Amino acid sequence: MHAIFQGHRPLVAILRGLKADDAEAIGSELVEAGFRFIEVPLNSPDPLKSIEHLAKRFAGEAVIGAGTVLTTQQVDAVMDAGGTLIVSPNMDADVISATRARDGQSFPGVFSPTEAFAAIKAGCDALKIFPASLYGADGVKAVKAVLPSEIPLLAVGGVSVPTIGEWLEAGTDGFGIGSNIFQPGWSAQEVGKQARAFVAAYDKSANWVAG
Q1: Catalytic site residue from 29, 39, 52, 144
Q2: Active-site residue, selected from the candidate residues 29, 52, 128, 144
Q3: Is residue 142 part of a domain?
Q4: What's the CATH number where 22 sits?
Q5: What confidence tens digit (pLDDT) does each residue in 29-57 have?
Q6: For the chain, what is the domain count?
Q7: Which domain holds residue 98?
Q8: DSSP secondary structure of 92-148
């Protein structure tokens, strides 16, 4: 397992549309299920408040941060709210540099080897293939073959419980799970149910043994 995940499953919960009042209850279900990386996209309602609630509640238990981070100003706002994970849909060297300057973790979105190597050169911690559904497992396998092995590759977009094994066989290191694990209006219990299903599928396919 890559050092960045520190013995935790490489699964990132993407909570697009999360309301701040629901953040702690949903976060509790995710952490209990086995997720240790939680992302609140910045196009959610009052995302910085949700990040603040999650960061305080799960300090030392989970890595909390934001998705859809597009500017260095947003990086600072997330960090000031207590987040340390910065996820973007695109590759922006300035965003990566700003994240690393504040000791955050940078997961930029890439869709080609050119973007991937540019992100690595800028100092990213992991790469996010997005949208993975357009790439497919075969596409990931081809790209993974030329990337440095020390840089984790996460598939985001279109990953489901039944297909996790296929992605892992192709060389994917981890996953960002969005609408298949959380949708606005879902109860915390429903989120927990979906999260446990993904954890079980990952554990089985990756032969994961919790440390």
Answers
A1: 39
A2: 128
A3: yes
A4: 3.20.20.70
A5: 999 999 999 999 999 999 999 999 999 99
A6: 1
A7: 9-205
A8: -HHHHHHHHHTT-EEE-EE-SHHHHHHHHHHT-S-EEETTHHHHHHHHHHHHHTTS-
Q: Is 39 a catalytic residue?
A: yes
pTM score, two decimals? Answer: 0.96
Residue 82 lies in a domain: yes
The answer to whether residue 189 sits within a structural domain is yes
Q: Give dist(CA 33, CA 27) in Å, integer.
A: 10
In the structure encoding, which two tokens stand for residue 151, read together?
Answer: 């840089």
**Which conformational region is residue 6 in: left (phi greater than 0), alpha (psi within -120 to 50 degrees), or beta?**
left
Is residue 4, in this structure, part of any structural domain at all?
no
Q: How far is CA 7 from CA 77, 143, 209, in A?
A: 28, 25, 10
Q: Which residue has the tokens 């993975």?
A: 132
- Note the pLDDT tens digit of each residue in 148-161: 999 999 999 989 99
Identity of the amino acid at 60 = G
The single residue listed with the structure tokens 């190597």 is: 117
pLDDT value at residue 1:
60
Q: Is 121 a catalytic residue?
A: no
